[in-house]
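Hello forum,

I keep getting stuck at the same step: I have a sequence, I want structure tokens, and every attempt I make locally crashes halfway through. Rather than fight my setup again tonight, could one of you with a working pipeline run this one for me? It's a single chain of 209 residues.
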Amino acid sequence: MKTMKIIYPLAVALAVMLASTGCKHQPLGITPMREGLTLPPNPPLPPTLPDTNPPGPQINPNPDITSHGIEAANPNLFEDMIEDTNALAAYTIHFPYDSAAIRDSEKANLQSVASELAADPATKLLVTGNCDERGTEEYNRALGERRALVAREALAKLGLDPMRVRTISYGKDQPVDTGHDEAAWKKNRRDDFILLHPNPNMPAGMPPS
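Reply #2:
Ran it on my machine without issues. Output:
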């Protein structure tokens, strides 16, 4: 009987201990990991590919300075002037394909333009750069600008004050020949020179508005 009194409390204590330490519940949603199992390393990141896009066009930080280093003319001084498209039409210069280089054969025309402007200091000049129809609108606009600027620079070297010369690019928008062959394209790759006369209706000494 005494033996039963001793065994019974021990059995109860053992049952309580097993209940508190026997089973541990895993949190919901988490898969238990077996001992000795390690996670695989993270996959390596893909290598960074080099930027193969060409750089965009460079923006002139000073719009008053042209790409050829000559100060731009004041546009206000050209307002209200009268355009004479015929006076210098015989001196149009032409360019090779995809080029703004002035050929030696065209330099006599540039000299004639400079001489015409020197004969009348009251006149000014508009140089228009033009291209043939091939290429994008943006590309031809930029090429036409280079062609006009290189002519302005050449005229400055011949003694013409560059402040009397403005430039504009029409790109491929103003062809003189609307054909689609080399004969037409050759005519359209050009610089036109437009003589500008003072407006006689403006009072003398009055600046342009």
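Residues 137-157 form the longest helix (21 residues). If your local run keeps crashing, start a new thread with the error log.
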